[in-house]
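Lecture notes, unit on protein representations.

Consider one protein chain, 291 amino acids long.
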Amino acid sequence: MTPLPDSTATPTYHLGRLRVTCLFDGWLMLDGGAMFGVVPKTLWEKKLPADSLNRVKLALRPLLVHTPAGPVVVESGVGHAITGKLVDIYGIQRLGPTLDDQVAAQGVDPAEVRHVVLTHLHWDHSGGCCKLVHDRYVPCFPNATYHVQEAEWDTAMAANNVHKASYVPASLSPLLRERGRLRLHSGSGPVVEGLRFELTRGHTRNHAVVWIEDGEANGCFMGDLIETSAHVPLPWISAYDYCTGESFKARQRLYPQFADRRTLLFIYHDPAVAAIRLVRDQSRWDFEVVS
């Protein structure tokens, strides 16, 4: 499979009354072996070529969802969470604007965003919730409630967990300090009108995907359950996952639903495409790009 060219586009998709725009927060470079776990490099590099440091290029694609109740942001990019030498280590290349600027560029006043929904709190997914202003983190959306799994929040705030390098508590703590800014969920269930969590676990102990639905029209934001289109095959699971077995079980459960419902899957890290649909190829799973 010839890799598709990288894309910084911000396409918009329609799901019934809901309008979903894929934003773009820049690029991230992560170790290819870690990204593909037990899959040999001779296979994965045909889909995502590695650089001289064995890193693969990943996009950061939050969503802006226009709902009848107002605009909702799903995920937040890396933002200002990573600074100093780590910017080079992780190959972070941002185009400049913070998440609120990206939303404003779509014609939405950031003050009108009332909800931000997060699949998990690794810094490449939650770092844009707040921005640095005079060396102090402040929320990007002054009137928004930020939604995340309660146990995921506890993990992110812990100082001694084994995955602490994946979290930047300082970039999240303003959400807790300001009354009403944080809403903690426990498992699957509705978040706001048209959006709901489904707990998958796997990538983190409490990772959740986000369904976006209006009647039969439906999409699902995958977070890190499917990082890129190259990760669609069931066993192609990242070694960054807390529990690859849980990720595998979640995929087994959800893939038939996605295919039967013709679900539009929003893929956060794919360097070339923002959305795909799963298709069955006899006993295997494949995908089609949705432009």
